[in-house]
Design goal:
Elements (H helix, E strand, L loop, with lengths): L1 E2 L11 H8 L15 H19 L2 E7 L2 E8 L6 H16 L6 E7 L3 E8 L21 H11 L5 E8 L8 H10 L3 E6 L9 E7 L3 E3 L3 E10 L3 E9 L2 E10 L2 E10 L4 E10 L12 E9 L3 E6 L12 H9 L3 E5 L8 H4 L4 E5 L8 H12 L4 E5 L14 H5 L2 E2 L11 E8 L7 E2 L2 E2 H15 L5 E7 L3 E8 L4 H8 L9 E2 H13 L5 E9 L3 E2 L4 H10 L2 E8 L5 H10 L1 E7 L5 H12 L4 E2 L6 E2 L18 E2 L2 E2 L4 E5 L5 E8 L2 E6 L9 H4 L4 H13 L7 E8 L2 E8 L12 E6 L5 E5 L1 E4 L2 E6 L5 E9 L6 E8 L12 H10 L4 E2 L6 H4 L8 E6 L1 H20 L4 H15 L7 H22 L56 H12 L1
Parallel strand pairs: 3-4, 3-6, 6-7, 7-46, 9-15, 16-17, 16-18, 18-19, 19-37, 21-24, 21-27, 26-28, 27-29, 29-30
Antiparallel strand pairs: 1-2, 2-47, 4-5, 8-10, 10-13, 11-12, 11-14, 14-15, 20-34, 22-23, 24-25, 31-33, 32-35, 35-36, 36-37, 38-39, 39-43, 40-41, 40-44, 42-43, 44-45
Helix pairs in contact: 1-2, 2-20, 4-5, 6-17, 10-15, 12-13
């Protein structure tokens, strides 16, 4: 027996004290009365306490087991070809077919990571093992990770064995440490070598080096290293994002070959140079290792990207024209695009020092584009400037989007007293078309999400009702107030589509009934209808005119273009509302929040005012006064944001902050003649905007950060040298690096100072491709830099030598064996029961607790019942009598009893007959010849009749009598009974 918590056993020392307290010896001071339960109750009590203490100590029985558990570790990295993978899977199947009925097996597939293909379990036969389906990362081999995972899977009640099926070419992980853990756990390791196919002629592109930063128009060197096993020729190509830069044939000699390509840096950008080496057919085995890439930042005048919608018609305002001219006047290189053409590639955005959104509506930007902008600022240190207008900020549906998270202002105005109470009704199409999926989400759910966002944007005094309609209003949620908001949101998330089209008139009539019960001064209806399936149009214009006469405005949203789209636009015009068209249901949340901000009216402030400066900023350097403005979009400042200029209503006009590694600026007015006519004519207009955009970019040109990345087997080492322009080391900086993988996932690492002005950090690349890295300070000091690094082909293709020696050493260190991949009995050897029996501890504390529980009622009974020694004797006699069988009466005994009964009858008859003489009644005793019988005493009338112990008397004849009354046996018996009484 063993214990998991043996220190608890010290409580057993208290048992003698309990005995002394309960059963003190007679004569001791204050000796209590002996317990009525006696020694039995005390013994039961001690037994129960002992069982409880043993349970608390974690009592367990230790026994040896001979069951066997085997886990197969199967290499699935790139160095294992299809033939070896099939052979490994067949080996596992053959081994499982030979396992014993009580044996268990499990399977782990590993490459860069380890995945459980099959947990440790019983297998009926090889057919019980499905084909391998796990897909670990194949670009590296980490045997240590697989060993550590297997240690967590092994059961505790079986002997344990690992079977490693691999080529032994480990590229990452600490295998030696992992195998030491297996040794300590007593696990035997068998190895199965999977040989790599022979490699013939091979050309390998080893390294490409380019300078981290070059100036615009500067000539620089691209250094290339390649290996070859044969003498051959190959075509060397260099490409960038624009196309082919270099294409020449080169000669390769066996061994290491070095080449230098001279290139001229073009426009400022973050350039990725791809190098390809193409040998002739038949002279190369693996094409995967014939391409690498490198990053170079081309510096010069910073480039900024202006994003604005194109003006249509003569009356449309050119949103970006004045702003672009002002930026170009300050020496910035400006490129312009539209929201639809804006790239969602983080690498392409990283070519620009800043991105400027000019009166851009959120629905014109996909969710992915907004997330890319957010990562561009937060992770790579880019600059973002958002310029307002009627379609921006809250009016542009920025509420609860990545844009709102990135900007230093909130889209909701906190001063709710400025807003009149609003009653809004959403009439939503729930026809069959709304059940269609878009991005894995039903359209009706996207509409419900839009309603939820609109509800969250409304003030506490507002009301909102949602009505779903197909051929009739089917569900009405609301009016929703702050009291029932959570319940209503839950109902909205449960909405589902119905059938048929949307009956517009029925929906408007239901909305009118709801609004008739409201006293709020602002009333608005939003109708969401399918542009190809809006039915029941009759009477709708007249109904909308009646609603408008009652102060109700009506907006229309057409989802999808169809024959009913123009009619819906006409109805919005009649209802003095707005018309929205979208062919993507994902835009509905932005449309609904934009409508909510529009009907609340005070989000759009259009009146003349002069901005007020409330804090200092480099943006206003040299600017003493500003002209008047004629409008802006209302917002609220975030807690950590800095408001530089504010409006006459104390709303943010110019707000800035640092977001992650980058900076974001919000200008809630516009940069056109709509609201900023005086600003466009202002002489400091270019200065203001040039300083605003340059502040958002940070100090990229003179920050003194030089970055280098080296790859060491498993880890990428990031080294940053920080110096002043004069060459002095910058010490004590708080630097971080955001590493964005090819899949868009961000990994943040802290850089530690390792030498004067030098900082280092490591990260683990998990995917092949280009990594974008943003480096900057956690304080707002302007230190930032963007760089890149490319993880080329898998390290599995950099070397083609297997390592059977490693596998043999693993087996030797753990008393395992090297098993051949082929052979009739090789798989069966895996489940040989030749391991030492494993001691296994079985917990027994539950049984001890059960025993204590069962004894508890007996202990209570012992305390409640009084049992004397005579009670125990009677109990013992009853027990013995119940167990011992009754002996059969002997014939002599039967005859004696018969004679006794006859004597009794005669005595009774004599006592009842009248006495004729004066003699005393006599008792007669009849005996059988040669046998003594019990004596029966018959007393006279009035005397007691009793049966005494049998006595042996002298033999007498049948008629012999006792004459002396005083000496008769009956007289003696009476005397003895009286004396006893």
């Amino acid at each position: 027996m063993s214990f998991t918590t043996p220190q608890v056993l010290i409580l057993l020392l208290a048992l003698p004290l309990i005995v002394w307290l309960v059963w003190r010896p007679p004569g001791s001071r204050r000796a209590p009365a002996r317990p009525r339960s006696g020694w039995l109750g005390l013994v039961l009590r001690l037994i129960i306490l002992t069982l409880i203490i043993l349970s608390l100590a974690g009592a367990q029985l230790v026994r040896a087991v001979e069951d066997l558990a085997v886990i197969f570790l199967v290499d699935a990295s790139d160095s294992i070809d299809a033939e070896s993978s099939a052979a490994a899977e067949q080996f596992v199947r053959d081994a499982i077919a030979a396992m014993g009925p009580d044996d268990r097996a499990g399977v782990i597939l590993f490459g860069r990571n380890a995945l459980v293909e099959q947990p440790v379990r019983l297998f009926e036969d090889a057919g019980d093992l499905p084909p391998f389906a796990s897909q670990p990362l194949r670009l590296q081999t980490d045997l240590a990770a697989a060993i550590r995972l297997s240690l967590a899977l092994f059961p505790a009640d079986a002997a344990r064995r690992l079977v490693v099926l691999s080529d032994g070419a480990v590229t990452t992980g600490d295998t030696d440490q992992a195998i030491r853990l297996a040794e300590a756990a007593g696990i035997s390791v068998d190895t199965v070598h999977l040989p790599q196919p022979p490699v013939g002629s091979e050309v390998i592109l080893r390294d490409v080096r380019a300078p981290a930063r070059v100036g615009q128009g500067e000539t620089f060197r691209l250094e290339i290293t390649a290996d070859s096993t044969v003498a051959t020729t190959a075509v060397l190509r260099v490409l960038d994002g624009e196309g082919l830069l270099y294409d020449e044939e080169v000669s390769l000699q066996p061994g290491v070959n070095n080449f230098v390509v001279r290139l001229t840096a073009g426009d400022p950008a973050f350039n990725r140079y791809r190098v390809q080496l193409a040998p002739p057919a038949g002279t190369d085995t693996y094409p995967q290792n014939n391409e690498l890439a490198s990053f170079t930042e081309v510096t010069g005048q910073p480039r900024v990207l202006v994003v604005a919608a194109e003006g249509e018609g003569e009356t449309e305002i050119n949103e970006a024209g004045p702003l672009r001219g002002a930026l170009e006047a300050t020496g910035l290189q400006v490129e312009q695009t539209t929201p639809g053409a804006l790239s969602a590639s983080l690498a392409e955005l990283n070519d620009y020092a800043a991105v400027i959104l000019v009166n851009v509506n959120a629905r014109d930007l996909s969710q992915r584009k907004m997330e890319t902008l957010q990562s561009y600022v937060r992770d790579l240190g880019g600059g973002l400037v958002v310029v307002g207008g009627p379609d921006s900020f809250g009016m542009g549906g920025y509420f609860d989007t990545p844009l709102e998270e990135t900007l230093p202002v909130n889209m909701q105005i906190e001063d709710q007293e400025r807003f009149p109470p609003v009653s809004m009704v959403l009439v939503i199409d729930r026809s069959g078309s709304m059940a269609a999926d878009e991005g894995g989400v039903a359209k009706i759910q996207l509409a419900a999400e839009g309603a939820i966002r609109a509800l969250e944007l409304m003030n506490d005094s507002d009301e909102m009702t949602l009505i779903t309609v197909d051929e009739a209003p089917s569900e009405i949620i609301g009016p929703v107030t702050p009291a029932n908001r959570d319940e209503a949101i839950e109902q909205m998330r449960q909405l589902g589509a119905g059938g048929g089209g949307i009956f517009v008139r029925s929906g408007l009539e239901a909305a009118a009934e709801v609004l008739a019960e409201s006293d709020n001064p602002v009333k608005h209806i939003i109708v969401l209808a399918d542009g190809a399936d809006a039915e029941q149009k009759e009477g709708v214009p007249e109904l909308i005119r009646e609603l408008r006469a009652d102060g109700v405005t009506v907006s229309m949203v057409s989802i999808g273009r169809g024959p009913d789209t123009p009619w819906l636009e006409q109805m919005a015009e009649i209802g003095n509302g707005r018309f929205h068209f979208t062919d993507a249901a994902a835009n509905l949340p932005q449309i609904f929040t934009q409508e909510t901000a529009a009907i609340q009216r005070n989000y759009l402030i259009e009146e003349r005012f002069f901005p007020s400066q409330v804090s200092d900023s480099p943006i206003l350097t040299g600017i003493e006064a500003t002209p008047a403005l004629f409008g802006y979009v209302g917002t609220s400042p975030k807690v950590t944001g800095q408001v530089v200029l504010e409006s006459h209503q104390e709303d943010p006009l110019l707000a800035v902050w640092q977001y992650g590694l980058g900076r974001a600026v919000a200008w809630t007015s516009d940069a056109t003649g709509r609201w900023a006519a005086d600003w466009v004519r202002w002489e400091d207009f270019p200065t203001f905007w040039g300083q605003t955009v340059r502040w958002s970019m940070g100090d990229r040109s003179e920050n003194g950060l030089a970055t280098e990345i080296t790859f060491d087997g498993e880890d990428a080492i990031l080294t940053v040298d920080a110096q002043t322009p004069d060459g002095l080391y910058l010490d004590g900086l708080s630097l971080i690096a955001n590493v964005v993988s090819p899949t868009g996932e961000t990994q943040t690492v802290d850089l530690s100072q390792v030498a004067p002005g030098r900082y280092e950090a490591t990260f683990i690349p998990t995917d092949e491709g280009a990594y974008l890295i943003g480096i900057g300070s956690t304080t707002d000091d302007g230190l930032r830099q963007s760089t890149g690094w490319v993880l080329g082909y898998s390290p599995e293709y950099s070397t083609f030598a297997d390592n059977p020696q490693l596998l043999a050493s693993l087996a030797e260190r753990t008393n395992g064996r090297a098993v051949a991949i082929t052979g009739d009995d090789s798989p069966a050897n895996v489940f040989a029961h030749d391991l030492d029996a494993l001691p296994v501890a079985q917990p027994i504390w539950p049984w001890l607790i059960l025993a204590a529980t069962l004894l508890w009622p007996l202990e209570i009974a012992a305390r409640r019942l009084v049992l004397t020694r005579r009670d125990w004797a009677k109990a013992w006699s009853a027990l013995v009598a119940g167990v011992r069988p009754q002996a059969a009466a002997s014939p002599e005994r039967t005859e004696a009893m018969s004679a006794l009964m006859q004597a009794k009858q005669r005595a009774t008859s004599d006592r009842q007959s009248p006495l004729t003489t004066g003699e005393q009644p006599r008792s007669t005793i009849t005996e059988t010849a040669g046998a003594a019988t019990p004596e029966k005493v018959v007393a006279g009338a009035g005397d007691d009749l009793s049966l005494s112990e049998p006595e042996v008397v002298p033999e007498a004849t049948a008629d012999s009598t006792v004459r002396d009354d005083q000496g008769t046996l009956a007289a003696r018996l009476r005397d003895r009974r009286r004396s006893e009484r």
